[in-house]
Design brief:
It is built from seven helices and five strands. It is α/β, with parallel strands linked by helices. The two termini are 14 Å apart. Bound molecules: zinc ion. Keywords: Acyltransferase, Transferase.
């Protein structure tokens, strides 16, 4: 959904921007190779699209990752193990959130850091929970069902885990740190309500992170990945990002080499077509 708005990109961020955009470009270029999910066939430090898609499929096998449900716990422990095997440091941020209905949700943000001592940092983030109800489905019969979350949830996590693979194989330059943040409780509450209202049940993990920033933060900039697994992927300019970080938006789109809303912007997640439209 939404991410904390990063500051405008200062001149000293050029090196960081190059790395980040390279990662994104590699996602586009190397994802098209044939082969299974084993990760072979790409160079060290390159993003492996097929392997990342395997991470999407693995999440789907847990079932919907709804806070408070066993599948949510299991998926979280699986992600934590993946990150601990790849990152220099992994911090678990435990959040007890009381919903408007009085239920206490036990949520976890996972904050995986590469070169945690580096002062200059970039942040990539995604949410890993899924919506309890497909309340925006055009099919009325589906609105009480949970969202499977192949696109809305798993796709962003899959991309970030692929980035973790790339950074593990080829760490960033010594002066640059990269953080991967997997936020929880992002899509829990009423999608029509004001997410920034007091006691809101959406954007829980992101708001908690923004209120408890790590020492040395904010990063140079942040890029959020969500819903990047549609069959016919169209990515649009995001209005908040355009308003608060237009230079970052421009850099991302220059890297992609494609215009927003173009039908050519797929990142090789075509197999997501097998999931319901409410994903
Ligand atoms: Zn989402």
């Amino acid at each position: 959904m939404k991410c904390p708005s990063p500051p405008p990109l200062p001149p000293r961020a050029v090196g960081a921007a190059v790395l980040a955009l390279l990662l994104a470009c590699q996602a586009k270029v190397s994802g098209g190779r044939s082969g299974g999910g084993g990760g072979g066939g790409t160079g060290a430090g390159e993003f492996d699209g097929q392997r990342a898609f395997g991470y999407l499929e693995r999440q789907m096998r847990f079932g919907p990752r709804i806070p408070g449900m066993p599948a949510h716990d299991s998926a979280g422990y699986w992600m934590l193990a993946q990150l601990r095997a790849r990152a220099d440091t992994v911090i678990v941020q435990e959040i007890a959130h009381k919903t408007k209905s009085g239920q206490v949700l036990h949520l976890r943000n996972f904050f995986a850091r590469f070169r945690p001592q580096a002062a200059e940092r970039v942040l990539f983030l995604a949410h890993w929970d899924t919506r309890p109800h497909a309340d925006q489905s055009p099919n009325l019969g589906q609105r009480r069902l949970p969202v499977p979350g192949a696109n809305d949830g798993a796709s962003g996590v899959a991309v970030l885990l692929g980035v973790a693979d790339a950074l593990n194989a080829k760490p960033p330059p010594p002066t640059l740190g990269v953080d991967l943040l997997f936020v929880d409780g992002e899509d829990y509450g009423d999608s029509w309500a004001d997410p920034y209202a007091e006691g809101s049940d959406v954007l829980i993990g992101s708001r908690w992170f923004a209120a408890h920033l790590p020492v040395g933060y904010p990063p140079l900039y942040a890029v959020l990945f969500d819903m990047v697994g549609d069959k016919d992927l169209n990515i649009y300019y995001e209005s908040n990002s355009q308003a608060f970080a237009p230079e970052v938006v421009d850099r991302v789109w220059r890297c992609k080499g494609s215009s927003p809303t173009s039908s050519t912007t797929t990142w090789r997640y075509r197999k997501a077509a097998s999931t319901p439209s409410t994903s």
